[in-house]
Design goal:
Blueprint (H helix, E strand, L loop, with lengths): L2 E3 L5 E3 L11 E2 L13 E25 L2 E7 L7 E7 L5 E23 L1
Length: about 120
Amino acid sequence: MYYESIVQPSRVENATRAPVATDAVSTIGGYRDAPLGQHARLFLDVTAVSGTTPSMTMNVYGVINGKAVFIGAFSPVTVVGTYTTRLDNLPDLVCVAPSPVSGTTPSFTCEVRCVR
């Protein structure tokens, strides 16, 4: 198994936002003896949630031909915890962005990791 991080440090998300290609970072780094498969399991670690009835869906985008293209999403998050999703045919460059974020003054502190 090859472990890698999407190099987007913990951050607070409190509004829906669209990704841009420059958000993406290569998820392929480090040393490897063979090409990586295109399958990946992503982990969303939510360490803090606040607001009234907060909800967030974290979307995963791949950069294809210089554009951020929707690939998949985590289930909606409403409480602190670790969430996971498996995605197939994942390109080398990926980014994540929340959409939608709902509730009254919602705030989420989160980090995403990827295992290929």
